[in-house]
Fold:
Amino acid sequence: MKDFDGKQLALNQLKWTAIYLAVAFIITLLLPFPADLALALLAFLVLGWYRRYLLLRKLGMKNPTSTVTGFEFKKIKELYKSNISNSIDDGQSKVRYYCMKCGNEHREIACPKCGSKMKRAGL
Structure:
């Protein structure tokens, strides 16, 4: 999940949208009105559960269908962290800040060497 591929994400979304539409179309053709609405809602819930199950398996959850106590909350939390916060925590940030007065690289509000609050970003 670290390598973000926009094209693959768009194709995946398109695939699941087509699946949802196909299921809804087939249900509406085969059943009369009140029954098709109820079955379509049930089918959407089941498909949503299945997509979440596949995502959690891809993330490495041991048993995605287990109860709340069985979930590994650290992995779910890592899923929602942005790439920027991960890279800063690891010390591998691509953006570096330099003091405009003395040129010292730092991440604090004020420069630890000279105390200046002016800084510029560099790569």
User: Anything to note?
Assistant: Residues 92-123 form one domain. The radius of gyration is 24 Å.
